[in-house]
Design brief:
Blueprint (H helix, E strand, L loop, with lengths): L7 H22 L9 H10 L2 E2 H8 L3 H13 L3 E5 L6 E5 L1 H27 L4 H14 L2 H11 L7
Antiparallel strand pairs: 1-3, 2-3
Helix pairs in contact: 2-3, 3-4
Length: 161
């Protein structure tokens, strides 16, 4: 149980640990050598076909750096391959046969994860998925850094204390 005095950052990190940790355990229980962070990359490649890291990052709304780190892990595990693009500078992600064989079982698993998420949403005063989307939209409209600066400016200055 997390402390009542936990800050927003601690709460969000703990929530992600609770969700992703259990999803990862469920992959293991199913005998799937898979991590939750691989799923957005796979889903993007399933939709787009072979694509650059930049294209995948834009598709899933995650930074290029984060996608690149995930792709490095996936490459080490033989889940994707990186090939040179047409101009030689761009790297193109391609699913390996190993991953393609896993896709039907992963899709089945995703159905179970989504059903569990729906159950969680039903138990809350407002669906978590809706609250998260609402929070992200608000942060798109006004970054958290701007909010921090405004809040800091409204605090009494040390000179006036």
């Amino acid at each position: 149980m997390i402390s009542e005095s936990a800050t927003l950052g601690a709460l969000v990190r703990h929530l992600i640990e609770c969700l992703d940790g259990e999803v990862e355990k469920s992959y293991e229980a199913q005998g799937l050598a898979w991590r939750p962070r691989y799923t957005p990359v796979l889903r993007a490649l399933m939709e787009l076909g072979p694509a650059s890291i930049k294209t995948v990052a834009l598709k899933i709304g995650i930074s290029h750096s984060a996608v690149s780190q995930t792709v490095s892990q996936m490459t080490r595990e033989g889940l994707v391959e990186l090939r040179k693009g047409d101009d030689g500078r761009e790297r193109i992600l391609v699913l390996t046969a190993k991953t393609q064989v896993m896709v039907p079982e992963l899709q089945r698993h995703w159905l179970a994860v989504n059903a569990a998420a729906d159950q969680l949403d039903a138990e809350l005063s407002a669906p978590l998925s809706s609250i998260v989307r609402e929070a992200l939209a608000a942060l798109d409209a006004r970054r958290f850094g701007e909010r921090i600066s405004a809040a800091a400016a409204s605090l009494p200055s040390r000179d006036r204390e």
